[in-house]
Amino acid sequence: MTALAHSTLETVTARGPISEAVLGRLRGNVDAGPTDAARAALPLTADVIRDDDVQLALFLLYASSYGSLPGLDPDLEWDADLMATRRILEASFEAAVRAEVPQPESPEPTVDAVGRALFTMAAADTGPSLSRYMAKKATRENVVESFIQRSVYTLREADPHSWAIPRLAGRAKAALVEIQADEYGGGRPDRMHATIFARAMRGVGLDDTYGTYVDDVPAITLASLNLMSLFGLNRRLVGAIVGHLAAYEMTSSIPCRLYADGLRRLGYSDEVVDYFDEHVEADAVHEQIAARDLAGALAEDHPEMLDDIMFGAAACLTVDGWMGAHILDAWQRGESSLRTGARA
């Protein structure tokens, strides 16, 4: 498979009336009317979480805050029409996630109780295992697709969770900074996790420019990233982004080992495997910090956030599970998991 032409704001393809209007406004068309488009289209949307138009529109609106796509005008970050559109879409997306993700029972708001509850929740996550498939059955074409699917988050790895840093204090803030410092390479730019993943992408023949494959990934992949951005960019949901990070770190180490096994089985270089080897060790340490020192300490210091911490963890496991199931189901049918199909 060869690399696809990379996306910029000018080349992203709309997936419906909302994303078309958002793209128009971001490209400078003052008459695009994204708010009106969202109000008109949302009532007709059967499944907000898996709707290509809604999820692309949210991705683009969040990209404006991250500055992650070439061509985004920073003056439009706080554009009133775009912000109103984002609030409408966020409300619908959050409501849909809360409706589909059962609220877990909350433990006592102590470090030990929250830590145990989160580890129990992570251990009970027994959905289809994409990582086991990667270890034993994946082809080189599957590997390239998996990197494309991962690229919308992993080339910006850690950024969504970092929105929580200024919104925390004390023990929880110190724990989050400890985790994020590792994610950003501990002062070594070449060891930033996003940078290591970019090298891995180049190693399998892909373009590591952020946004290259936006047009190719399905709505559920965008929803996985959008969920992090929703939690991270809304201060009222700081408990949810903490719970999300805890669950993310607690379910990463073993899958990354399986990915590394699969990549070695297929003969990939150390440069490609490095990203996954890094996470086997790092996330084994991070999971303890995230569950106890971050989530547990936040719940102990702010019991009013406990329900959202548990919800954020459950939402992470559920939505990422949907994304993994989409990919695995497609491969088991002998099909591509990408919207555009695999390209040779």
Describe the structure.
By secondary structure, the chain is mainly α. The chain folds into two domains: 17-100, no CATH class; 111-332, Heme oxygenase-like (Heme Oxygenase, Chain A, Up-down Bundle), CATH 1.20.910. The protein is built from 15 helices and no strands. The chain starts with 16 loop residues before the first helix and ends in a 12-residue tail after the last helix.
Summary, kept brief:
The protein has 344 residues and is mostly helical. It has helices spanning 17-26, 34-41, 52-66, 80-100, 111-123, 130-136, 140-154, 159-162, 170-183, 193-203, 219-233, 238-250, 253-265, 270-301, 306-332.
* Strand content bin: under 5%
Question: Roughly what is the average pLDDT, rounded to an integer?
Answer: 94
Shape descriptor reads globular
**E-strand count:** 0
Terminal Cα span: 4 Å
The succession of helices and strands, N to C, reads: HHHHHHHHHHHHHHH
Tally the helices: 15
What is the CATH fold-level name of the largest domain? Answer: Heme Oxygenase, Chain A
Q: Please identify the top-level CATH class of the largest domain.
A: Mainly Alpha
Annotate the secondary structure layout:
Blueprint: H1 17-26, H2 34-41, H3 52-66, H4 80-100, H5 111-123, H6 130-136, H7 140-154, H8 159-162, H9 170-183, H10 193-203, H11 219-233, H12 238-250, H13 253-265, H14 270-301, H15 306-332
Helix pairs in contact: 1-2, 1-3, 2-4, 3-4, 3-11, 5-14, 6-13, 7-10, 7-11, 9-14, 10-14, 11-12, 11-15, 12-14, 12-15, 13-14
